[in-house]
Design a protein that fits this description.
By secondary structure, chain A is an all-alpha fold. Chain A contains three helices and no strands. In chain A, helix 1 (5-25) packs antiparallel against helix 2 (29-53) and helix 2 packs antiparallel against helix 3. The relative contact order of chain A is 0.13. The chains are: A mainly alpha, B mainly alpha.
């Protein structure tokens, strides 16, 4: 590994922080879901970097499983978005405040 | 090697820039496109870390399947004319950006304080020539991690059933409101 591992970790932290910021900032449910996917990807990047650092391929299996979880989460989450849109005619996250009232 | 560093920084700029643009876009379709840019840059980084199989999987599964699913849903919902910023938010925008930046620096401080033992992070370590190829990863997947791999299939089955159940049209639409 020519580029030191800290650089990969900091890039991963940056991507994770952008994803977390997207969840906080955005009001569009679809962009919130994509930010969650971005956070999963950022975690994957650091797993891959550690996997090369320790010269073990077990991390690749873990990344594979995380990708499967991300796919399942996207399918269920988009189904929830479609259901919510059918009921409320909006996907603005600020409009869903039934539990706050 | 200089070339590796240059590739790393170019891909890092594309990954971070795509992610930032993804958040800031108003139009969800453009947002998905910037996400794809970010993902392709991340896939190049995976290949640079000699994870060929996972890098290919990232493009196939994420850019090919998941983001196309997002595009389908965006087209299906027909969000034209929906506005997302008409009301005054409770938290100011600076507070939100500030929270994300503070979060980032917390992680950076943790990384900087971690001691990576020895020269393992600096020196070019020698890996096997087929490190991260399809065959060794598949051997690991089907021998040591066979049980988690099988559990993955059950997870996908549950996700399919859940998605179909939730997205199915209900007969009494005028019933209770969510």
């Amino acid at each position: 590994m020519i580029v030191p591992i800290e650089h990969y970790l900091i890039l991963s932290a940056l991507l994770f922080a952008i994803g977390a910021g997207g969840v906080i900032i955005s009001r569009n449910l679809i962009i919130i879901f994509m930010s969650i996917e971005l956070m999963l990807n950022a975690a994957n990047l650091s797993i891959i970097a550690f996997s090369l650092m320790h010269n073990l391929m077990d991390g690749h299996v873990l990344v594979f499983i995380v990708m499967t979880v991300a796919a399942a989460e996207a399918a269920v989450g988009l189904a929830i978005i479609i259901m919510v849109y059918r009921k409320r005619d909006t996907i603005n996250a600020d409009k869903f405040n039934l539990m706050k009232r | 090697m200089l070339l590796d560093t240059v590739i790393f920084y170019i891909c890092a700029i594309f990954a971070v820039g795509g992610a930032v643009m993804m958040i800031l876009q108003r139009n969800p379709v453009a947002s998905v496109m910037f996400m794809i840019v970010s993902l392709i840059a991340q896939a190049v980084l995976y290949v640079q870390l000699s994870a060929l199989f996972v890098g290919a999987l990232l493009i196939i599964v994420y850019a090919g399947a998941i983001l196309v699913l997002f595009l389908f849903v965006i087209m299906l919902l027909n969000l034209r004319g929906e506005r997302f910023e008409e009301e005054r938010p409770k938290l100011g925008l600076t507070t939100k950006y500030g929270l994300a930046i503070i979060f980032f620096f917390e992680i950076v401080i943790i990384i900087k304080q971690t001691v990576f033992t020895g020269s393992i992070s600096q020196s070019p370590i020698t890996v096997a020539s087929d490190f991260g190829n399809v065959k060794p990863v598949a051997e690991l997947l089907f021998t040591k991690y066979l049980f988690p791999f099988e559990l993955t299939s059950i997870l996908l089955l549950v996700a399919i059933v859940g998605a179909v159940l939730m997205a199915k049209k209900e007969n009494n639409d005028k019933g209770e409101q969510i």
